[in-house]
Each structure stands twice: as structure tokens, then as C-alpha cells.
Write a structure and sequence with these properties.
The protein is of the alpha+beta class. The chain has 17 helices and eleven strands.
């Protein structure tokens, strides 16, 4: 995964073609079963393929204190057998259908996606409904999967100085919000996760009232609703279900810095994170302007403002970039980074980065550049509409983040409606370093 992914998530997972303010696309239908399961159906009959993605409104930010990584742990256990299937059988049966499946956990939600030929939709729904309520939690398999997630942390985080730096930056940026805790968990807390932790967490959050089913592809709404009633409709949800209250960030009053040294570093760089205060980010027009501003500043390689100034003109950087993650219902973070050219210090690279940001605010936005960015946003959305998985992802992603279907549908149009003035106003956020943490990734020289 490259650093560029931050911007792509913002554009692709939270956007659809503009159909007017708060309107739902014609090919989208919504239902809700009596037990609370929400259903979204997105028709696309271009190919005989269907994507069945079941989203649970529980993510790493819901991990109990001292139990970081629990949501991700339960995600793994969803493949370890039910009263009706053996461990690994879910994967094997999807493969026999010629299909694809995966699962994922983020800070706000957990998703389970299967893509198969349309003829297998009923079988997929039966399998997914089964593991919503029938996990067996065999002790030996639970302990094995705990070892698996610990190994995953070693491979994805501990083996990568860049990942460790970003983990430290998030932990430093957030003073009260659980986004400062890594989704995969802190190692010492992951080691303490138990069978009872997993069972109680599963029982609390895995049920129809806390889930949304998104079915996208070569299907019809009535067909999906009939199958959903058959396989999900009889499942029960607890009467006393309540989510943990969401924590809020206090005002940030001091600039922070992180110097991370590691002998494995191959390329030193500067990475800065900005927390966008809730009163700014919770306004959809402001957030759309932030999304476009970030793309203009550093989202498009050497054609961005940072790339053109630091890589092409001054040649002090080999790579630059910017991105954002978040939406109007959860914390928004802007990321900016500069990888200096050989012979350029991190101190000089950071100073030049700040100089470009200041110049961007002073000189204004190039209209032609802004128009190019808008075209890229518009056409990337058009191309994405042909992908059944993308449609299932974006609406489910919006659901677990507290967005309505209407808000998700209007997002691209809001970005396309931004102008030079709103982009510059969004850029003023970057002047407040009290809302930021700046990290230096340094190669530690060890004595021989």
C-alpha cells in the first residue's frame, strides 16, 4: 500500500455521481427487516456478477479499554467454523463457486465481502447468515488465531519503520479519541485477548440490528429482499443493545513532534498529520473543499503543487504527497509528506514544505489545475460505477461511518461544486500547527 491511498479512499469510497442534493441514484433500493437488518441493493446488469457485502457497525474504536485489537481478532474468528460448518469451510465453498471473498476491519466498522456469479447469491447469503449467529469459538482455534494476528502485526507493522512511525504519529495526534490506538492493536494487549473476550464481543455486536447488507450487481431488489427475509429474517437481535458513546477530541493547544529512529530505514522522510477540528470537518461543504484542496496540494504526483515545486523545480525531493481520511461524522486527518533528495536534510525538507504551503495560500489556486482535478474526480467516479465491489464498499463504508445513503450519493457533486476561494479557505487549516504532529523517519546508525 502506497502513501497515495489516503486520497483515493476519500474520493472512491465516499463518492458517487452527482444526482442532485440528497437524492438517491435510480438503481439503488433500500429496505429494513423487522429485526433491524438494513439492506441496500444496487442494480448493475452489465455482467452476471454479484457482490454480497455484510457490514457490521463495530470497529476498532469500539474495542474495550485494554483490549485493543479485539474487533480485528473477531474478524479472524469468523472464518473458524460454526455449528454448521468446519473451520476454513467458508473459504473453500466460495472457491468452489469460483468466487472471491475477503474481510476487513477499520476504526468504525467491519466488513465481509463475497463476489460470485449471480447464480450463487442464495448460497452465499445462507453461509453469511449462519456465521452471524452460530460461531463455535473452539478454544484451540481461538488461541491459534490469536497467534495469527500477533504474527500479522509483526509482518505489517513491526517489520516496517514507516508503519511504526505512522502508528506513533496517530498515537501522538489524538489526545482523547480512540483513533490514537492502532486498529490491529498494541501487542501487549493483543496477547491478553481471551476466548471470553471474543465471545462476549461477538454476542454484543454481531446481529441484524447492528448490520447492513449491501448487494450490488446483476440482481433485482425484490429478489434480494426475498432471499434476505428467508436467511436473515428469523435471526434475533438483543433488546438491550447499546453502543459505547463516542469520544470527542479536546482543542489541540500545542504543536507536537516525533523523531523515530531505526537502523532498517532506507529512505528518510518528513510526515505531518493535521487534525481538522470537528466544528470545521462536520460541515459537508467544508469537507468537500478540504478533499479538493488536498488533491491540488499533493494528491497527483509531480503535477501537484508540492510535486511541481519540490520535485520538478527545486529538485530537493524525490517524492511528495498529500491525502486525507475521515468524513463529516468522524475525525478528519490531513497527511502531508516529503521524501528529500540525496544530500537534503530533513530540516531543510520540512522548511521547504512549509514554504510551499505558505506560498500556496499567498499565490492562490491555479484554475486550470483545479479544473483538471475536478475532471479526474468526475471520471474516476464514472469508471468506478462499473465495479460491483466498489458500489458495495462505498455505501457500506458510509453506513458504518454514520452517513445516510443520500449523503454518500451527494459527495462527488459537493467536491465538483468547490471553487478557488473555498479551496484556499480550506488550506488555512494548514497554518495551525497546534493541530498537527510532525514526524521524522531517521536512519539510526549503529556502532560496529
Amino acid at each position: 500500500m502506497t502513501l497515495r491511498i489516503f486520497t483515493l479512499i476519500g474520493i472512491l469510497f465516499c463518492s458517487t455521481s452527482y444526482v442532485g442534493a440528497l437524492e438517491v441514484p435510480e438503481n439503488l433500493s433500500q429496505f429494513e427487516l423487522d429485526n433491524g437488518l438494513k439492506i441496500i441493493v444496487i442494480e448493475n446488469h452489465r455482467a452476471p456478477i454479484v457482490n454480497h457485502t455484510l457490514w457490521y457497525d463495530v470497529g476498532a474504536s469500539d474495542d474495550p479499554p485494554g483490549k485493543s485489537g479485539l474487533t480485528h481478532f473477531v474478524e479472524h474468528l469468523m472464518f473458524e467454523g460454526t455449528k454448521n460448518t468446519e473451520a476454513g469451510e467458508f473459504d473453500n465453498r466460495i472457491k468452489l463457486m469460483g468466487g472471491f471473498n475477503t474481510a476487513f476491519t477499520n476504526q468504525e466498522g467491519s466488513g465481509y465481502t463475497v463476489e460470485v456469479s449471480t447464480e450463487y447469491l442464495e448460497q452465499v447469503m445462507e453461509l453469511e447468515a449462519d456465521r452471524m449467529v452460530n460461531l463455535t469459538f473452539k478454544p484451540e482455534l481461538v488461541l491459534r488465531e490469536r497467534d495469527v494476528i500477533l504474527e500479522e502485526r509483526k509482518q505489517r507493522v513491526d517489520s516496517s519503520p514507516s508503519s511504526l512511525l505512522r502508528e506513533q504519529l496517530s498515537a501522538t495526534l489524538f489526545q482523547n479519541h480512540p483513533y490514537g490506538i492502532p486498529t490491529i492493536g498494541w501487542e501487549h494487549e493483543m496477547r491478553s485477548l481471551t476466548l471470553e473476550d471474543a465471545k462476549s464481543f461477538y454476542k454484543k455486536y454481531y446481529h441484524p440490528k447492528n448490520a447492513t447488507l449491501v448487494v450490488s450487481g446483476d440482481v433485482y431488489p425484490d429478489q434480494v429482499l426475498e432471499l434476505a427475509k428467508k436467511y436473515y429474517g428469523h435471526l434475533e437481535s438483543p433488546d438491550d443493545f447499546e453502543r459505547r458513546p463516542k469520544l470527542l477530541e479536546p482543542p489541540h493547544m500545542a504543536e507536537r513532534r516525533v523523531l523515530f529512529r531505526d537502523p532498517r530505514v532506507s529512505a528518510e522522510y518528513v510526515f505531518r498529520k493535521y487534525y481538522v477540528p470537528t466544528e470545521i470537518a462536520s460541515d459537508e461543504e467544508n469537507l468537500a473543499a478540504i478533499a479538493v484542496m488536498v488533491e491540488v496540494l499533493g494528491g497527483s504526483g509531480i503535477t501537484s503543487v508540492l510535486g511541481e515545486k519540490l520535485t520538478v523545480e527545486e529538485k530537493i525531493a524525490t517524492y511528495t504527497g498529500a491525502g486525507f481520511i475521515g468524513d463529516v461524522t468522524r475525525p478528519v486527518v490531513i497527511n502531508i509528506y516529503v521524501v528529500p533528495a540525496q544530500g537534503v536534510s530533513l530540516e531543510e525538507a520540512e522548511a521547504k514544505m512549509d514554504e510551499v504551503i505558505a506560498g500556496f495560500l499567498e499565490e492562490g489556486v491555479d484554475k486550470d489545475h483545479l479544473d483538471r482535478i475536478k475532471k479526474q474526480i468526475k471520471y474516476s467516479r464514472i469508471y468506478a460505477q462499473d465495479d460491483a465491489k466498489n458500489a458495495a464498499m462505498e455505501y457500506g463504508y458510509g453506513f458504518v461511518n454514520g452517513l445516510t445513503v443520500e449523503q454518500t450519493a451527494a459527495w462527488t457533486g459537493q467536491m465538483l461544486n468547490t471553487d478557488e476561494k473555498s479551496v484556499l479557505e480550506a488550506a488555512e487549516i494548514l497554518l495551525s500547527k497546534n493541530n498537527s504532529v510532525t514526524g521524522w523517519l531517521l536512519k539510526e546508525v549503529t556502532e560496529q
